[in-house]
Amino acid sequence: MALLVELLRDPGCAAGLTPAQWDVVVPQARQAHLLATLAARLWEAGVSGAVPPEVARHLGSAVVLQRKQCQGLTYELRHLVPALAEAGEPLLLLKGAAYIVAALPPAAGRLMSDIDILVHAGSLPAVEAALAAHGWSAGKIDPYNERYYRQWMHEIPPLGHRDRRSTLDVHHSILPPTSTGRIDVDALWAQAVAIQPGVCVLGPEDMVLHSAAHLFHEGEFGHGLRDLLDLDGLLRHFAEQGGEGFYARLTDRARHMGLQRPLYYACVHATRVLGTPLPPALVRGLRPRGLAALKAPFMDFLFRRAFTPDHSSCRLPLTGFALFCLYVRSHYLRMPLHLLLPHLLRKAWMDLRPEAASTPGRKAAGQGG
Amino acid sequence: MSYARLADLGSDALGEQLSGDGLRLRVGPYCYAIQSPEAVVARGLATLYGDFPLVPAGGFADFHVTFGPTGWRQRLRGQLDFFLDERRPFGSVPRSQAYAFLEWGLNWCLSVTMNEYLKLHAAVVAKDGIALVMPGLPGAGKSTLCAALALRGWRVLSDEHALIPPGRREVVPVYRPVSLKNASINVIRGRDAAAVIGPVSNDTHKGSVAHLKADLHPDSHCRAPVAARLMVFPEFQAGAPLELRPKGRAESFLFAAHHAFNYSLLREAGFDAMCHFIDGLDCFDLRYSDLDAAVARLDALVGEFA
Predict the structure, then answer these.
(1) For residue A55, which residues of chain B lie inside 8 Å, CB to CB?
(2) What digits encode the pLDDT tens for the residues B163-220?
């Protein structure tokens, strides 16, 4: 197991780490976008005294960035709530922004790359107009990509703010309409929980399901371990808050939305990688049967690699192959083959065009993530 | 076997470390572990980093840097990639620009990751134990002035990052070679025949770039912070008479903060650190065309504060 994962599971073992082991943990955490999360766990466990000062300054530096992001988020909300109100929509936050504003456990040390929100599909034109009036626009986008988003995706092309440079992802569902899930958007809205005037988040079960669907349907595993930590934190928290009934509501909801499979993977891998305590009956009830069960060892092979930090000190053999398979799988889940194949060919051709590269002579504004 | 300085390694051992587990160098408060199979990197480091302390393997390094060709496409085109940890923040660069790019990459590591100090985008030099901070827009001539001062007995603390511990009026030294661009390369060469200048990279996005070995002062690699008393905003203007004009602290604050790497990231702590720092400084605008006159004026200025 990667040293980073061991430390996240059991921060107490920080006391026994040698400088040579820290020399591996910090790059692993940086690669996995988890430096600030690691800091939060070590601090919370009261073992910061065991962290050598030359390591502590890396952790502290990541925390500075994370706090700045949280402050930036609060500031964005002050602008977003009135903008959306003009379109008659509340602000429903998804993923990282939701965890942070609702002060849920995954918020500790979590970095965000953009703000994800959910709006009613019927309000999209009004929402886009209101956001445009407040400075958000899609900027230059390839017409093919624009059409792809509009026709097939559950979100519109990302919007950037002209002055504040923040990025906003506007969703009207939590999975593409062509995907295998049957997302009941009205039910998501019905269970939404208000956390501040004009600001709400998904209900507990839907929040877990969205996190699982996002992680196990998407092909980008650069944040794989972070997203699995989100699930671990949410499952532990809601089980404690909602009692035993939570798991029953969760499986019912998964069945209703056709999301048993991502929930199954979430439970299996959160338990395996992070030791999430879950009732065995929950996983048994979700386990794929029949033909689908045959591919379980292969899926396990793929996800094991996806949840290992992408660093030579812990990378498993065939990681590149596994990530490629997951990437292809994500597209396959997103749309049927007769739509997917032309799209992949088109994207492959677009990738061959020379890419614009940034240069280090320019001052960079912050760490990616 | 352990070595004190890079120059104590033979060129074979240097090459082995660079193409093996990495050469570990102490740069101010940080340790860089550098891996690169490129001959120009070994040559540049041997020329410019000879007096840098080495760090024994087996400990903690702040920045793990890899610089070399990666995929077959890069190999065919003679291009190199820069990695911090194992992430590639930039596009590939042609081999002819390798050395300049390595130095930029090493700057970048520090610019984007560390926030335990307020980091101004500024050169820092010191004389008689007094540090002088020189923020400046690119092209303002701060590096050239910094190089000229180094050749006249000043100590260079950095030509890129002023590291300020919050709540202190000090600068933490983080010396690396001073970068020279275009005409400055020959200007500095012409001022001192003994000046040691590293590999020249042509046709970069900033033109020709080379670096001066500027750790000539005996304390160059001393890690203790240096008290800051002066902030000077240099501006090279061909043919202009020398002019050193006092500048308001508020205006100086705004300019330096605006060009800082992490002023806004540090939020209130950044504002407080900047306030405290600048309160103890005398600030000036320096317009110059003649380097000798500028050096003499700064010598006199620091004399007033010693």
Answers:
(1) 60
(2) 999 999 999 999 999 999 999 999 999 999 999 999 999 988 889 999 999 999 999 9
- pLDDT tens-digit profile of B105-124? 999 999 999 999 999 999 99
**CB spacing of B105 vs A67 below 8 angstroms:** no
For residue B205, the enclosing domain spans: 118-305
Same domain, B74 and B134: no
For residues B176 and B27, give the distance between their C-alpha atoms in angstroms, rounded to a whole number.
7
Whether residues B58 and B159 share a domain: the answer is: no
In a domain, B1, yes or no: no
Query: To the nearest whole number, what is the mean pLDDT of chain A?
Result: 88
What does the alpha-carbon distance between residue A225 and residue A307 come to, in Å, rounded to a whole number?
5
Q: Residue A36: its chain B contacts at CB < 8 A? A: none
Chain B residue with CA closest to A357: the answer is: B91
Interface touch B267/A57, C-beta < 8 Å: no
If asked whether residues B241 and B225 sit together in one domain, one would say: yes
- B interface with A, Cβ–Cβ < 8 A, is 31, 58-62, 64, 82, 85-87, 89-92, 101, 104-105, 107-108, 111-116, 121, 204-206, 261-262, 264-267
Instruction: Examine the domain organization and report whether B301 and B216 are in the same domain.
Output: yes
**Domain-located, residue A87:** yes
Give the predicted TM-score (pTM) of the model: 0.90
Residue A97's nearest CA partner among A37, A165, A169, A38 is A169
User: Taking CB atoms and an 8 Å cut-off, how many pairs form between chains A and B?
Assistant: 88
Q: Does A193 touch chain B (CB under 8 A)?
A: no
Chain B nearest CA to A361, separation (Å): 6
Instruction: Kindly report the nearest CA distance between residue A55 and chain B, in angstroms.
Output: 8
Q: Mark whether B202 and B297 lie in a shared domain.
A: yes
Question: Residues A274, A307: contact at Cβ < 8 Å?
Answer: no
Do B32 and B19 belong together in one domain? yes
Total number of domains constituting chain B? 2
Closest C-alpha to A324, from A341, A306, A310? A306
Nearest CB to B59: which of A19, A356, A360?
Answer: A19
**Domain contains B26:** yes
Expressed as residue numbers, the domain containing A127 is 3-350
pLDDT, average across residues B241-249 = 96
Q: Which residue, of B54, B79, B113, is where some domain finishes?
A: B113
A133 in a domain, yes or no? Answer: yes
